[in-house]
Amino acid sequence: MAFLYELAWRLLHAALHLQRTLLSWFRARLRSFDWRLWKRAFAALLVPVAFSFHAHRRLGPQTGKRSCRRFRWGADGRALEKLPAHVGLLIAGEEPRCADVATLVVWCMAVGISYVSVYDNRGIFKRNNLRLMDEIQRQQQELLGVDSAKYSIELVNGTSEKADSQGFVCQAVVKVLSPNDGKNSIVSAAQHLCRSVEQKERASRDITVDLLDSMLRDSKRTPDPDLVLKFGPVDSTVGFLPWHIRLTEFISLPSHTNVSYEDFFGALQRYATCEQRLGNPLLGTRGPPQDSAVEETGDSA
Amino acid sequence: MDFDSCGRRRHRKESLQSIYSCSIEGWFQVSVSDKFQKSNMSWIREGELSFIERLSANILKAGPMPKHVAFIMDGNRRYARKRHVERQEGHTQGFQKLAETLRWCLNLNIREVTVYAFSIENFKRSKEEVEGLMELARQKFRKLLEEQENLEKHGVCIRVLGDLALLPLDLQQLIAQAVVATRTHNKCFLNVCFAYTSRYEITNAVKEMAWGVEQGLIKSSDVSDSLLSKCLYSSSSPDPDLLIRTSGEVRLSDFLLWQTSYSCLVFQSVLWPEYSFWNLCEAILQYQLNYQSLQRAQEQHLEEQALQQLEADRHCVAELLQQRENETVIDGQGRKELLLGYTLDREERVRGFLDALQNKRDDFFNNLTSQAVLA
């Protein structure tokens, strides 16, 4: 009997893996197919919604080369109901590619997002951050063309930071993160606090959430990520900034390689329509009663 | 019992009828509708899975199963609005669903469940709603104390995680009694996060370590990732393998932020009171699809941690050597022995500190229990 169950389980998983492979194949083919064929393919696969982190289904028609869109980026950003101040680009479970991530960073900046964090759980971006910076600058030139001079990207790496930030229309701060910036930074802050207790500079009861929070802010006072775009097949944060993601929205996209602007912007549109309370979303004050105000935790018990 | 147009038995109460709409889940639940009414306050919903549910469970169990699942049970209020019932009714239905979900978890051999019942931030809701939730909690914990035999039979250990000092004293006492009464049970574990936020939990863990330093139990150099984990409220539990949030929200809302770094996150759009066995199976399937990648990521993280600890110990030993002025030159073997000795000392210190911490926590509950008895 156990053997039969195991067989059934293997068949089920084989079917799911096949479905995933077919989906990625279809996505790749989508670029050259028209939308109606895609809709038919989708329907044929009967894709269950649950089998993706939070399936992004807004796959619009291709509008041509990326560079043609440049004049619309700023307008796109302004057209959104709300734009995240800080976006995290989380690569989980696939090989990170500098060029593709650089494109995403430039798009973020072009639509008006002020802070962008780039993360992968093996620290590959962190080790290659100079290469990433070069790639970002190259993409900035290529995608923004003559306007690229109006944009400034500041790469914050915890070490040196560019001081000159005057005269730019749009500025974005880019941080390259690795698992060390997550739990380890909390542990470092804890060690620092314990040392000051050891040296009788402070009592243990003086340690508060606000104190720890201020120690975990960088010199730029980067706000917590409002939105994390997760790329890749793994449904996890894989160590991304545990302290800072308490209210972060997670939107999943299948892959960061060859991601289209439409998919990226679609994710921003989804973020814009999700309802959060202004300021601290867990505050009791809400908008008009008929709007489906966010159900925060504490709905049960 | 009369029958409605779908051929199912009509329930006496309107609010219950609204739950069993024409859906496939409704068919499976018809047979337990009588038991449902009798045990509608119970923490444990008696009943077995149907044939198809058992079959699916057995197939799923052929693969890796999560040992610890965490739930953010979101959607009670939206459910109440949808069904045009009182908000409080939505919360009550949410509790029924919790009891049912616990039974499904037991059937699936998932022995540990953590739920987010009440956030510290929720104190900012209207006084009426907060009081309603406190009253519901009082009822549930009183019921739990009445059901001790049942809990013992199933071996359920209840733990409550959070800043309990923020709660009304009588509720604290009820909670303490429930925790102490089920402390020795070890077949399955239910962790209820009440007056909880993850940031507060992490800060509290740092405070406890600082307390340990103040008491001279540990040194500041003993502070590490794994020591912090052991100072969290959830120190007796392994990290959750799977975190499920219902109602379509895609946030963690300050829940188990430290513990879920390498957990499979599943966001489902179903409202919590409408959660079904099949939703749970879907989530578990998602976990199984992610299992290997997450195992790898976790192992990598643990290896990194071990290396960092070794480095930290080496650094401490080097510092100690520097401080000793009249020591002869130590060779490689000598250093190794010193390092080993230092590591063992550190582990001993940490054990002593964790024992003291556990005693402090046990005393907190014991004191509340004896207060309740005297009162």
Distance between the termini of chain B: 47 Å
Uncertain parts of chain B: 1-40
**How far apart are the first and last residues' alpha carbons of chain A, in Å?**
40 Å
Number of E-type strands of chain A: 6
Low-confidence stretches of chain A: 52-67, 158-165, 277-301
Number of helices of chain A: 9
Order of helix and strand elements from N to C terminus of chain A:
HHHEHEHHEEHHEEH
Structural class of chain A: alpha/beta
At a glance:
With 301 residues, chain A is an alpha/beta fold. Helices cover 40% and strands 12% of the residues of chain A.
How would you portray this structure in words?
The complex is a heterodimer of chains A (301) and B (375). Chain A contains nine helices and six strands; from the N terminus they run αααβαβααββααββα. With 301 residues, chain A is of the alpha/beta class. Residues 52-67, 158-165 and 277-301 of chain A have low confidence and may be disordered. Chain B is α/β, with parallel strands linked by helices. Chain B has helices at 14-19, 24-29, 33-38, 51-61, 76-82, 87-107, 127-146, 148-154, 169-181, 198-214, 225-231, 277-323, 332-374; strands at 68-72, 112-119, 156-161, 188-196, 242-245, 264-267. In chain B, helix 9 (169-181) links the parallel strand 3 and strand 4. In chain B, helix 10 packs across helix 11 and helix 12 packs across helix 13. The two termini of chain B are 47 Å apart. The chains are: A alpha/beta (301), B alpha/beta (375).
Detail the topology: elements first, then pairings:
The complex is a heterodimer of chains A (301) and B (375).
Chain A: H1 2-30, H2 35-45, H3 70-79, E1 86-91, H4 98-111, E2 115-120, H5 124-127, H6 129-144, E3 151-156, E4 170-177, H7 183-198, H8 209-215, E5 227-231, E6 249-253, H9 261-273
Parallel strand pairs in A: 1-2, 1-5, 2-4, 3-4, 5-6
Helix pairs in contact in A: 1-2, 4-6
Chain B: H1 14-19, H2 24-29, H3 33-38, H4 51-61, E1 68-72, H5 76-82, H6 87-107, E2 112-119, H7 127-146, H8 148-154, E3 156-161, H9 169-181, E4 188-196, H10 198-214, H11 225-231, E5 242-245, E6 264-267, H12 277-323, H13 332-374
Parallel strand pairs in B: 1-2, 1-5, 2-4, 3-4, 5-6
Helix pairs in contact in B: 4-12, 5-6, 6-7, 7-9, 9-13, 10-11, 12-13
